[in-house]
Amino acid sequence: MTTEARRTLIEAAQELYATNGVAATTPREVLARSGVGQGSLYHHFPSKRDLAAAAVAQTVDDTLGSAAATLDGADAPQRRIADYLERPRAATAGCRVGRLTADPVVMGDETLRGEVSRYFTELIELVAQAFAEQGLDAAAARDRATTAVAVIQGGYVLSRALGDDAAMSSAVRGLLELMEPRTDWARGEEQA
Amino acid sequence: MTTEARRTLIEAAQELYATNGVAATTPREVLARSGVGQGSLYHHFPSKRDLAAAAVAQTVDDTLGSAAATLDGADAPQRRIADYLERPRAATAGCRVGRLTADPVVMGDETLRGEVSRYFTELIELVAQAFAEQGLDAAAARDRATTAVAVIQGGYVLSRALGDDAAMSSAVRGLLELMEPRTDWARGEEQA
């Protein structure tokens, strides 16, 4: 009945959701993977929904935390945005959060759906702040941040569809190439 | 046993797949929606897999045909690309093809997965041709086309996640804004 058991259960659920989704994951599978006793599962998470809420919230927190570590750094905003876009990703596996938008259990549950919405709202805000530091006004920074996050999410969809991580790299390269001249121009640097 | 019955069955399957996915759609539901007799279903489609292959291929053909009608037109390539990106879309419903990348039945079947792969391969090629007409070399045109298709697919994911079609519009606006100055610069026009 320890906090350790709770954390182990959540981690097991996170891993299973990443591979199979929430709808297709049973409490029995979470138990088997975690190695925790059945009594502990029902103590910490009286229902499958309680476990799903905790595990999805943890995945959102983990993923936002790692994005913030890249986007909130001390480097120039252009560098931080490029670092975020170019982060190594297991693209053909799909985004752990983005894929939940196709999970019927997640989309049919107000709490779970709220977590997915919180993820994208906060992620777009993080990226928009970096674009705003580059001198874009708030509305333009928000549009460009939505474009950047869409490129990553779309890159996952294309990589899964084509069975090839190269689709993500190509989508990111195309976006970075588009962002370059505008940044130089905005900085007032001479064009070659 | 007519071709008309076959078409009606395929249309019913396409509509059900668009709403519920392939995995969650039963032959019984397709029969009920189509109004066609059970004998006709089994005559045209001996297995659920045969029906899915025909319906997914038809959705890919329909969607590619409508993209080609916009992208292959007589207008300037910049205009055709913008028209394609700004096409009205029921964004919160998700892409009829893109969502299949999260469907376990589709991803577990070589033929169905091949149809999804064909869709994105041909769509990226269509968009890349328009960028190539703007003077980009083949590799750059391909990257930019992958970015553009990713923005649409990611726009669907964000709109579903946030329950708001505005996310798609914002992602598209951000991309169009990025494409503008580069196009002017590539044309050699003066900057204001």
UniProtKB/TrEMBL annotation, chains A, B:
Keyword check for Transcription regulation: yes
Organism listed in the record: Agromyces soli
UniProt xrefs under Gene3D superfamilies: Tetracycline Repressor, domain 2
Protein name, entry field: TetR/AcrR family transcriptional regulator
Entry keyword set: DNA-binding, Transcription, Transcription regulation
Domain HTH tetR-type: residue ranges: 3-63
PROSITE patterns: HTH_TETR_2 (PS50977)
Keyword tRNA processing recorded: no
DNA-binding region, residues: 26-45
